[in-house]
Amino acid sequence: MKSGSLKKSIWRMSISLLVLFAITMNLFSQQTATDDKVYDMVAHLPYFVSSESSEDVPSILRHISKNIKYPQDAWDLEKQGIVVCEFVINKDGSISDVRVKRGRGVYPSLDREAVRVISTFPKWHPGKNEEGESVRTRYALPVRFFMRKFAQ
Do 30 and 92 touch, CB atoms closer than 8 A? Predict the structure, then answer.
């Protein structure tokens, strides 16, 4: 049996997603939805609902867990941690500008995988201003990579 296969059978990989909801209502915005400004705070938060779940957090977790792949080099070196990614949810709900938040990278291949998997999200419901107009909204998600040893 190969060392990598043995290691994978000894270690159980669990990937979880912690969701940060740091975006709050902004009652004093004077911008209109016709601009391309990216808002950090909006009256109505963006959310993601898949066909498999009608709730936001379970839908996000399900999408991440179905699409993420633990990079082999990080697995072999037992690298783990939380990669915090920022991205923009556009007016049409599409995702853009996905990047690792400054100072929040863990290991290069884990950082790249977190960015890749967030980039695969289908359209979200966009954030909205006080007038109910869709606006570009900045969002952050922490993606947790960890390994857990289990008894044989």
Answer: no
Cα 37 from Cα 50, distance rounded (Å): 27
Residues in contact with 126: Cβ distance below 8 Å, sequence separation at least 6, in sequence order: 46, 89, 90, 91, 92, 93, 134, 135, 136, 137
Residues in the chain: 152
Separation CA 137–CA 66 (nearest Å): 25
- Answer whether residue 56 shows pLDDT above 60: yes
Are the CB atoms for 4 and 72 separated by under 8 Å?
yes
Phi, psi of 13 (to 5 degrees): -90, 130
What would the pLDDT profile of 113-140 be if each residue is shown by its tens digit? 999 999 999 999 999 999 999 999 999 9
Query: What values do phi and psi take at 125, rounded to 5?
Result: -85, 120
pTM of the prediction?
0.73
Count helices and strands (H / E) in the chain: 4, 6
